[in-house]
Amino acid sequence: MTKYAFLLGSHPLMSFLEILNILDVEKISYSKPYRLGEILLLEMKISDAKLKKLQNTLGGTIKIIEIVDEFRGTIFQINKILTAERLLKKYFAQTKSKINFGFSVYSPKSLVYAEINWLRNFAYQTKRRLKDKYSVRYVDEKNFDLSSVMVANNKLVETGAEIVIIKQEQNFLVGRTATVQDFRSYVQRDMGKPSPNPKSGMLPPKLAQMIVNLSRSSGQKTVFDPFCGSGIILQEALLLNLDILGSDIDEAAVKSTLANLEWLIKTYNAAAKKLGGEKIKKTSISGRIREADATRSRWAKANTTDTFIATEPYLGPPQRRVPLMHNAKKIAHELEELYLGFFNNLHNNFSKIKRIGIVFPVIKTNEGLLYLNILDKIGDIGYIRHDFLPSEQAKKEAYVSHRGGLLYSRPDQFVLREIFVFERR
Ligand SMILES: C[S@@+](CC[C@H](N)C(=O)[O-])C[C@H]1O[C@@H](n2cnc3c(N)ncnc32)[C@H](O)[C@@H]1O
């Protein structure tokens, strides 16, 4: 087993839960998960190719770092670990052509000036020491926090190393970044598609990916999104190599989903051919997307035991400023009707679907947050909430609602997202 550190994204708890669920779904055995802020540590046995695939599967993980050394002491002793010989042997990807290297430090407390200064001197000294025999470049980042963009643009993983120092309570872990999130691909799938649908509010692709991953359980191969909008969830499902089914009440949304998914398959498969990567397996999507009302329709094709739902239904009209509580209540009431209509229909017409990952809106009002008050009713219909965490632990977490939903928000948003996974009783 090798120890790895996962650098978690902006919503660390959600990222953490996504990792554990995917390791279970993919049957990758692991031990001793331990989370400290933005870092998750665990041990697993995994090939390089599988690790790369795992990185691409996870919407909430920014980097995966392989831990090479562990020591007790202070950062001023790191030179004893990171000797030139050890760097060449254990850290750098290669030494035959130019070596690019940089440092990142993750620590619950930020480094003090003396530590920053010392580490920078150490980095430049290392460069000088190696310079006679090797062609070396040090990529300096003043806060020792290299972004995935910097790691990728400077080709640190392929040509040298991003050396990562993780400070824990008693000791330091030192490792080398093995994989980083492919930021170019996210930009392309977010911005490149032919039919963005600003009307339905933009679901960030990484969040869509996390919703799919949190909703999955092993053996389930088909994602059904009954409120598919412009198809962002379905797009991420296709990239995760899952089968898809989608519907929407709005004809224009159906057309937009079809155009976006066709574009995605064409673009990705052309790139895969050129770069030798994996292709999206489904090449025909007609018959998989249709117009339907999620509160009334049946669809035999989607009513199977290997299908699960991952969906973001309508979250209400976009808000430009904080709404008054009594206006928000009107919106929430209409949305409650829609959501209950959906769960009732699911129960009556989709009896084989066992897991449902779904986004609820939480409206920020002048009197505080307003939640959809329908959990008991959904329970009466026959769906129970999956507990992401034991309730004592959940209370201590940021980004968890008082009733155990995972919260996702950005500072400028007036409608937050609350994510639940339900299981049919
Ligand atoms: C927030 S968007 C969905 C975003 C989508 N999940 C995605 O990944 O792009 C909500 C969609 O729900 C659809 N909708 C609203 N009421 C519906 C209903 N009763 N049945 C099906 N779709 C509905 C709207 O037309 C809209 O396209």
Question: Could you explain how this protein is built, in words?
Answer:
Helix 10 (232-239) packs parallel to helix 11. This protein is an alpha/beta fold. The chain folds into 2 domains: 2-181, 2-Layer Sandwich (VC0802-like); 184-424, Vaccinia Virus protein VP39 (Rossmann fold), CATH 3.40.50.150. It is built from 14 helices and 17 strands. The strands form 2 sheets. Strands 9, 10, 11, 12, 13, 14, 15, 16 and 17 form a 9-stranded mixed sheet that branches. Strands 2-3-1-4-8-7-5-6 form an 8-stranded mixed sheet. It has helices spanning 12-25, 48-57, 78-81, 84-91, 113-131, 148-153, 156-159, 183-191, 205-215, 232-239, 251-275, 325-349, 375-381, 391-396; strands at 2-8, 30-36, 39-44, 61-72, 99-106, 136-139, 161-167, 171-180, 222-225, 243-248, 289-291, 307-311, 355-365, 368-371, 383-385, 406-408, 415-424. Strand 16 and strand 17 (415-424) form a beta hairpin. The radius of gyration is 24 Å and the shape is globular. Bound molecules: S-adenosylmethionine.
